[in-house]
Design a protein that fits this description.
The complex is a heterodimer of chains A (515) and B (328).
Chain A lengths: L3 E12 L2 E12 L3 E5 L6 H8 L7 E6 L2 E2 L5 H6 L2 E4 L11 H5 L6 E2 L2 E2 L1 H15 L14 H14 L4 E5 L7 H16 L3 E5 L4 H6 L2 E6 L2 E7 L5 H9 L18 E10 L3 E9 L3 E6 L5 H8 L7 E6 L2 E3 L4 H6 L2 E4 L3 H5 L6 H6 L15 H14 L16 H15 L3 E5 L7 H16 L3 E5 L3 H7 L2 E6 L2 E7 L5 H8 L10 H11 L1
Parallel strand pairs in A: 3-10, 3-11, 6-9, 9-10, 15-20, 15-21, 18-19, 19-20
Antiparallel strand pairs in A: 1-2, 1-4, 4-5, 7-8, 11-12, 13-14, 13-16, 16-17, 21-22
Chain B lengths: L5 H11 L2 H21 L6 H26 L7 H18 L4 H24 L5 H20 L4 E2 L6 H6 L9 H19 L1 H11 L1 H6 L4 H27 L1 E2 L7 H11 L11 H20 L4 H26 L1
Antiparallel strand pairs in B: 1-2
Classes of the chains: A alpha/beta (515), B mainly alpha (328).
The complex binds adenosine-5'-triphosphate and magnesium ion.
């Protein structure tokens, strides 16, 4: 490890009602990947934002390459050689990929922009990073994972000494993560210093040289990864030892089908999809990014209109024309992109929690039952351990993981029979994760039907009674909990059109064959 | 990672991008022209087409200028009465003070830029919502025009008849110079919006202001620049209006801003920000004046003209929303 690039000591930062950082410290050396871990709301993002000129610290000393420096704007931090990928996507959807990457640094000839040079530079960057993306395509047309790759490419393009990545892997699947790690190692070997924030603790061993643990805004410890095991890190994070025993699966689901989807079609992402969901079961949906899992569920929920297909609830065909209809028929959908679809960011925690079940908290004349709503919000904040100074806090001021919990609280309040969770544990810390697993199990045991989309195979394997695997918009197979393995799922998830013939026949044939 | 090949993505952009709205507006404009030519025999005359062009000049300039603010997700309501302020400023310099006309023109542009600077500062620095800041400036500019002129029109006849002589002169194709001023202004605006960093940041701010700021762009400064550009176009529109009536009218302009905003919106500029184009805005401006001229030639009373213009605006925006929704 080389020279000291960044040294932060005694950093404190308060927001109204929240002591986000309290005497925190951190250091980064050239040629290392330094992981920063801690529970949701521990202050990881805030600490890095202080370093990047987004928040001003209340107290403490920052040294960059030995010189005291307090960047006041993102630009000042860039000039010091510090680049950051934020936890939430920060892209301009109307601009192209290349325009996004080089925003603020556009090549120009005289007064005019040089669009050709811009696209050429982007192409070169993608070649260097082995990313397959068209620099001229509009960012709003890309899937979340692709947008994340744009963010990553943008941060790399600064070629800065210090690169901070705040949960870069949360929206990526294993293949893309491998790619990211390969790039990260190259940079490290070239002598850059990299900060890696993640809740996927199994990643630490793969990528990091050292780990710093934070809890409640405080510095806990810095350890060398090779000399530490995950269990030790977890107990430092939560301040106690928790045993990650796999929760047992609830009893066998009853046979009663609550939701049936027949021959659903929508563009290239949803092709002739049919499946059944039974009361009391958790149905896992696996597949690579872009396999169409989210699109299928959005079509069922009528967030996007399907082109054809039928939805039956309790055996009855129903017409679901918009998300309102879906909720009325007892379907809840927790979006993977909480910022865009799941939350009213400017509103407070309480309102967000009761938003999908307003009816229940309204009298006949449209008055809010304020007390009931408040009680419900307080109860869920406690159950899910949402870290917030109060239910009056605006959701946009919560940490990323806590925002995710608010979405979950909202749909638990709606108390629907069918719950579709799209990547429910993305960006959620270990403690809260097992909390959410327990909750899903509880729901199933109480007779609800649960669909869980997840890109984390261990999670799918651990939680589901039955697993659907998708590839290129089709369901390529169905596995029972007993027969499912990582390898089997991956085989089905990569079964492209050229190999298999399309249609539900394949999937039946497969599951029969596997039995 | 999925690959999107360059060619298919470009085709898709062509088919579903904002260019569609522009094509729709252009189609509507052509249909209108044909329609009026058929039902009103005296519509399809060269003279009449020239009238439409002449009638578009000031609105076209205002709409072009306000397109920038709208793309950033803002709005500028002060552009209408702003023309009263800038033409009075022109009159004071060129007529009351008797200075050479080019200085008067410069005063017109500079006073417009000043209004833009104030708008931009209120919005970017004082963090006022654009609607409120520019609504305030709507009254301030109107009031200032009347204070400075003592509520009397300033006539550009003596010693400055050159204003009308030059700008209403028709050296090319019998089309008055104010129309060429509009096209020239629009060309400059097109370059600014599509070929310079100002344009790039205009779109970026409208698309995601926070992300633009986090990328290290000085968003406040560029927002101010956007309103200054809009202000200079108000100055140009003030010159055109003064040339047409050979006078600076201190009470003019109320409502002009809505015409300009309507033109931009018909042309596909999104009030939510991030989308818009100069060509679309110009088409929108032509559509509005074609509608006005056509209905007048047809002897449709003014009150019905209002209703029809309103329906066109609603229809255009509805089409745009419909198109977007079916694409999503
Ligand atoms: N702008 C803000 N206003 C008010 N409170 C804030 C603001 N930003 C962060 N906080 C609070 O500061 C604390 C630390 O938040 P931070 O985002 O740093 O957590 P984190 O460790 O990144 O968590 P996560 O893993 O969930 O992303 C949280 O309690 C959060 O609610
Ligand atoms: Mg965070």
């Amino acid at each position: 490890m080389g020279e000291l690039l960044v040294e932060m000591t005694g950093i404190s930062k308060s927001f109204p009602g929240v002591h986000a950082l309290d005497d925190a410290q951190f250091e980064l050396r050239a040629g290392e990947v330094h992981a920063l871990v801690g529970e949701n709301g521990a202050g990881k993002s805030t600490l890095m934002k202080v370093l990047c000129g987004i928040y001003a610290r209340d107290a403490g000393v920052i040294r960059v390459k030995g010189v005291e420096a307090y960047p006041a704007t993102p630009k000042a931090a860039q000039d010091l050689g510090i680049a950051i990928i934020h936890q939430e996507l920060n892209l301009m959807g109307h601009l192209t990929v290349a325009q996004n990457i080089f925003i603020g640094r556009e090549p120009h000839r005289g007064l005019l922009l040089d669009e050709k040079a811009l696209n050429r530079k982007a192409t070169e960057l993608f070649e260097e990073l082995h990313i397959l993306l068209d620099p001229r395509v509009r960012v709003s047309r890309l899937a979340v994972a692709q947008q994340q790759m744009v963010e990553i490419a943008k941060a790399f393009s600064y070629n800065s000494d210090v690169l901070i990545m705040d949960e870069p892997t949360a929206a990526l699947t294993d293949t893309e993560i491998d790619e990211l790690f390969r790039i990260t190692r190259t940079l490290r070997d070239r002598g850059h210093g990299i900060v890696h924030i993640s809740h996927r603790l199994e990643e630490l061993r793969q990528i990091s040289d050292r780990v710093t643990v934070m809890r409640d805004g405080r510095y806990i410890n810095t350890v060398v990864t090779a000399e530490t095991n995950i269990q030790q890190i977890i107990s430092m994070m939560v301040g106690r030892t928790i045993f990650e025993a796999a929760p047992e699966l609830p009893e066998d689901p009853s046979q009663e089908v609550v939701l049936e989807v027949r021959n659903l079609n929508r563009g290239r992402q949803v092709r002739d999809v049919s499946f059944q969901l039974r009361r009391g079961e958790i149905l896992g949906v696996a597949g690579l990014v872009g396999a169409g899992r989210t699109e299928v569920m959005r079509a069922v929920f009528a967030a996007d209109k399907p082109e054809s297909g039928q939805v039956l609830i309790n055996g009855q065909p129903v017409a679901i024309k918009n998300p309102g209809d879906a909720v009325r028929h007892g379907i809840a959908y927790l979006s993977e992109d909480r910022k865009r679809y799941g939350l009213a960011l400017g509103m407070d925690v309480e309102l967000n929690i009761v938003l999908a079940s307003m009816r229940r908290f309204m009298s006949r004349f449209g008055w809010m039952h304020a007390r009931a709503a408040r009680a419900q919000a307080l109860k869920l904040v406690e159950t899910l351990a949402i870290k917030t100074p109060g239910i009056g806090q605006r959701v946009k001021n919560l940490s990323g993981g806590n925002q995710q919990k608010v979405v979950i609280a909202k749909w638990l309040t709606a108390d629907t029979d069918i719950l579709i969770f799209d990547e429910p544990t993305r960006g959620i810390d270990v403690g809260a994760k097992s909390e959410i697993y327990r909750l899903l199990n509880d729901l199933a045991r109480r007779g609800k039907a649960v669909i869980m989309i997840s890109s984390e195979l261990p999670e799918i394997l651990r939680m589901s009674h039955r697993i659907l695997v998708m590839c290129e918009g089709r369901i390529t197979g169905e596995l029972s909990a007993a027969e499912a393995t990582q390898e089997r799922i991956m085989t089905l998830a990569t079964q492209r059109q050229s190999v298999a013939t399309a249609g539900p026949e394949t999937s039946t044939a497969m599951s029969v064959g596997a039995n | 990672m999925q690959t999107t090949t360059a060619s298919t993505s470009r085709i898709r952009t062509l088919a579903t991008g904002e260019s569609v709205q522009r094509l729709l507006a252009l189609g509507a404009l052509v249909i209108l022209l044909v329609f009026f030519s058929i039902i009103a025999p005296n519509f399809a005359t060269l003279e009449n087409y020239r009238n439409i062009l002449t009638a578009t000049a000031s609105n076209g300039l205002l709409a072009t200028g306000v397109t920038f603010a709208i793309i950033t997700g803002g709005i500028d309501l002060s552009i209408g009465t702003g023309t009263a302020f800038t033409s009075v400023a022109m009159g004071i310099v060129a007529v009351n003070w008797g200075l050479p006309l080019p200085l008067g023109l410069l005063a017109g542009l500079a006073s417009g830029g000043l209004v833009g600077l104030i708008n931009g500062t209120l919005i970017a620095k004082a963090k006022l919502p654009p609607f409120i800041a520019t609504l305030g400036m709507l009254y301030v500019t109107l009031g200032m025009a009347q204070v400075l002129s003592d509520v009397h029109p300033i006539y550009f006849t003596d010693p400055q008849p050159a204003l009308q002589d030059f700008f209403m002169g028709k050296p090319i194709a019998g089309i008055p110079n104010i129309v060429w001023v509009m096209f020239g202004g629009a060309a400059v605006a097109w370059v600014l919006l599509n070929k310079t960093v100002l344009g790039r940041y205009t779109f970026a701010i409208g698309s995601n202001e926070e992300a633009t700021r986090l990328s290290g762009v000085n968003v406040d400064r560029w927002k101010i620049a956007v309103y200054v550009v809009g202000g200079v176009f108000v100055g140009l529109a003030g010159i055109v209006l003064a040339a047409r009536s050979a006078s600076a009218q201190p009470s003019q302009g109320m409502g002009y801003e809505l015409n300009a905003i309507a033109a931009a919106v018909i042309g596909g500029t999104s009030l939510a920000g991030g989308e818009g184009s100069i060509v679309g805005t110009l088409i929108g401006a032509f559509l509005i004046s074609t509608l006005g001229t056509g209905l007048s030639v047809d002897n449709v009373p003014q009150q019905f003209q209002y209703v029809i213009t309103g329906l066109v605006v609603i229809g255009a925006v509805w089409l745009d929303i419909f198109r977007r929704r079916s694409r999503a």
